[in-house]
Amino acid sequence: MDDDHTTATIPGSARAESLRRDLRGLIRTLPVTFDDIVAAHAPDPPVAPRRPRPPGAANRRATRRRPTRPPATPAPPQRHPHTPPAHPGGDPHDLVSGTHADRPPGPTMPTPGSPATPIGQPAEYLHRLRTDARARDLLQARSAIQHTIRRRLDLDGHTHVDTPQPRHDFPGAHPGSAATTHHPGPDPRPRDRSPYLRAMLTAGFARVYEIVRGDATHTGEHTFVEIHRAHADYKTTRHLIQDLVRAAADAMPWIEPAPGAGPPRIDWARPWVVTTVHAAVGAVVAAPITPDTDARELLRLAARHGLDADPAGSADELLVHLYESLVRPATHTPTFHIDFPASQAPLARPCPHDTRLAQTWNLAVAGIEVATSSTEPADGAAPRARPPANTARADDDAATIDHGRSAVSDAPTPPAGSVRIDLDRLVQVLTGAELIDDVIAFPLPAAGRAGR
Questions:
Q1: Does 348 reside within a domain?
Q2: Which of 14-23, 214-223, 380-389, 401-410 has the lowest mean pLDDT?
């Protein structure tokens, strides 16, 4: 044979001993011992047979019973002294009527109109929710409308911001005064709340909005949506409000009209009317009205239509009085009334075609003002550079420029368009509710509605 392919021959005993040695070395490296391997392969031990049960054992177990206590007499159901009895014939699965058997007892609802239940208190309102399906539908519609407005603003790049809330119990507060917030810090000066949201535009936020509960001229239950958009004007905000209102109208669930409802539902898809406030007043009084119309002529027109006007009022005040008394109540379809007198809007930018007018608009629908807007100047000091007329309304507007507003206005602010939506009135118009209290949860008593 060739030397390269020769193999050494190992005797049988030596070869077996070498294999055993290698196997023992391999076993030592394993986590188990050789005895463990042998025990694992050992046969199982035989199982001893079970001892047979003596006869009768099963019967003795069946007859052996534990001593039981005598059954307790069920106590009569203890009804809470303030729990109303179940409504006869009510749906046992109705979550509103309160007749479900598993529901814990709750407080009784006094009879509406009783001396113990003043008008507008929570007890009466909850009673109406339990008994009136339309009242529940109105609140569900309000929730859908508010959710849609917030969602559209969020998708459009607006940032929701919560600014300091105003308080209405400070000394000297009255309807029309500045909405102020007293901060219990080292700077106790009252600040008006409107510049905070506007100031967000100076911090890199191009679009901001806030949902406000109450202000200086409305009760705390009133809800507004305030929007500020940098580099916008009162023309672009018209498109914004149309988009929001139409989206809210589409998302609102169907509500059965109230008995004896007034005008038919509004077609929000049709083009909205845009007209100047002077043209709108002139169309109602059947006379040409322009910014040059003097106060004596407007006072004569007000007297001809049976309005009680202030003889000492300015022409701008009389024009607004005619608008609020004759034009807005007669407006049914969505209409933008634009270019109000600048003296009545001292914080808005003047119109380029006539500085006597301001870039503002009011949205009137079904005789209700549901939103307002204005173009805010780039420089916060610009409104103060144009002093308003010496009128009560202008003085009230100018009073809002306090120390806090001056501090914010002095910052470099971009031009912006602002929108203020009266959410309660918008819901009232969209749902066709007869009263604004129908769309507010827990409305205040009549005594607390002086500012509404």
A1: yes
A2: 380-389
User: How far is residue 391's CA from residue 450's CA, in Å, rounded to a whole number?
Assistant: 23
- Write out the two tokens for 404: 């806090």
How many other β-carbons are positioned within 10 Å of the β-carbon of residue 180?
Answer: 22
The whole domain housing 145 covers: 134-181+189-448
Q: Across the chain, what does the average pLDDT equal?
A: 74
Helix (H, G, I), strand (E, B) or coil at 335: strand
Determine the straight-line distance between the first and last CA of the chain, rounded to whole angstroms.
120
Give this prediction's pTM: 0.65
Q: Residue 361 in 3-state DSSP?
A: strand
Task: For residue 224, give the H/E element and its range.
Answer: strand 218-230
Q: Which residues contact 313 (CB under 8 A, 6 or more apart)?
A: 295, 299, 321, 391
Predicted local confidence at residue 434, as pLDDT:
86
Residue 196 lies in a domain: yes
- Spell out the long-range contacts of 353-362 with Cβ–Cβ below 8 A and sequence spacing 24 or more: 354/291, 356/291, 357/291, 359/233, 359/234, 360/234, 361/234, 361/237, 361/238, 361/336, 361/337, 362/277, 362/328, 362/336, 362/337
- CA pair distance 98, 76, nearest whole angstrom: 21
For residue 63, being part of any structural domain is answered with no
The answer to whether the beta carbons of residues 370 and 337 sit under 8 Å apart is no
Rounded Cα distance, 360 and 243, in Å: 19
Which of 21-30, 125-134, 331-340 bottoms out in mean pLDDT, i.e. has the lowest? 21-30
Number of domains in the chain: 1
Distances (CA, A) of 162 to 130, 188, 210, 212, 225: 33, 20, 6, 8, 11
388-394: long-range contacts at Cβ-Cβ below 8 A with a sequence spacing of 24 or more?
Answer: 388/342, 388/343, 388/346, 389/314, 389/316, 389/343, 391/313, 391/314, 391/316, 391/317, 391/343, 391/344, 393/176, 393/317, 393/320, 393/344, 394/343, 394/344, 394/346
For residues 95 and 77, what is the distance between their CA atoms, to the nearest angstrom? Answer: 22
Angle formed at CA 68 by CA 62 and CA 70, multiple of 5 degrees? 140
Q: Considering the domain boundaries, does residue 5 fall inside one?
A: no
**What tokens appear for 4 in the block?**
């390269």
- CATH code, domain with 253: 3.30.930.10
192, β-bridge pairs: 180
